[in-house]
Amino acid sequence: MTLPTTMNAMVTMGHGNMDQMVWHPDWPCPTPAASEVLVRVKACGLNNTDVNTRVGWYSKAVTEATSGDGYAKVDDEDPTWGAAPISFPRIQGADVCGEIVAVGIGVDATRIGERIITDCWLRDPQDPNDINKTGYFGSERDGGFAQYTTMPAVNAIAVNSPLSDAELATFSCSYSTAEGMLTRAGVTAADTVLVPGASGGVGTGLIQLAKRRGARVVALASENKHDAVRALGADLVLPRAPGNLRAALGDEKITVLADVVGGPNWSTLLDVIERGGRLTCSGAIAGPIVAFDLRTFYLRDLTFTGSTVIAPEVTAALVRYIEAGEIKPALAATYPLRELHAAQSAFIEKAHTGNIVVVP
């Protein structure tokens, strides 16, 4: 096929409000370098990294909850997930579903025509397990908020599924984050997992992937989302912030807290973990600064694990689960790429259950 020289793209020009995301109908179309592929983007999911990077929320200068608005102060040296600077302009968007349309030197040409989703983590080919040498698609290099994008061939994971492009675009970030958290916490069928923010993208992944491991799941969500959360497999669904969480849990014994919320209710959640239990954390959308009583931590023999960079095999495993029908997408809404501002507003407001996707 003849490839275009320009394309539509939503380009982030700097840190700040949504007006930093600027529509360009004639952005240069990328060319795959050696060991890379060119992907025609069919759909691209939204995730918190897109918002947090744009506004600079990862900077230690920011102490507030995640917001779609810019902050008064963002330090230039640590505004990204990796506590490092970012180069602008940048095309964000990590969760691509698309088709390989060209390959660079060293990539088998038979891959042209493959339907793929992204493994979002960019690794050193010579040392893929060194998490100090990782980057993130749409952060350390341009991503999928455009008609075309390039990526290392190893990050384009072939998928064979009857699911739509938009449905497949819900998996890469949210579900790999969830599976990474459960792996770090060593969740098994012996566990009961408490999932705050259960109606969000990662929450919907946590419910299904924990159930896949045979665990029991207790979900916290706004009451208007309970039916949707229950349909994903949660065994017990409670309000987002019960007045007395311990009483609301009844006889449930929480062995794992899988949290991406943080914020003012965090210490309450910590208090209900059983002695010897585990916390795994991969976010703090309600606020990164929490009250923490060290006595709860050490007197009850708790284990804490942070979870960001996932093992290389996690996305490949997710594709196997998708192809086997063991997990399903939680697609909340789709928007045209040109309406990314509206899509991010809906994402930030968390008015839906599941993931929001844009389509070029």
From TrEMBL:
Residues 16-358 form the Enoyl reductase (ER) domain. It is an enzyme of class 1 (oxidoreductase). SMART domains: PKS_ER. GO terms for molecular function: oxidoreductase activity. InterPro entries: ADH-like_C, ADH-like_N, ER, GroES-like_sf, NAD(P)-bd_dom_sf, Zinc-ADH_QOR/CCCR. Keywords: NADP, Oxidoreductase. It holds the Pfam family ADH_N. Gene3D superfamilies: Medium-chain alcohol dehydrogenases, catalytic domain (3.90.180.10), NAD(P)-binding Rossmann-like Domain (3.40.50.720). It comes from the Bacteria. Its EC number is 1.1.1.-. This is Putative L-galactonate oxidoreductase. It comes from Thalassobacter stenotrophicus.
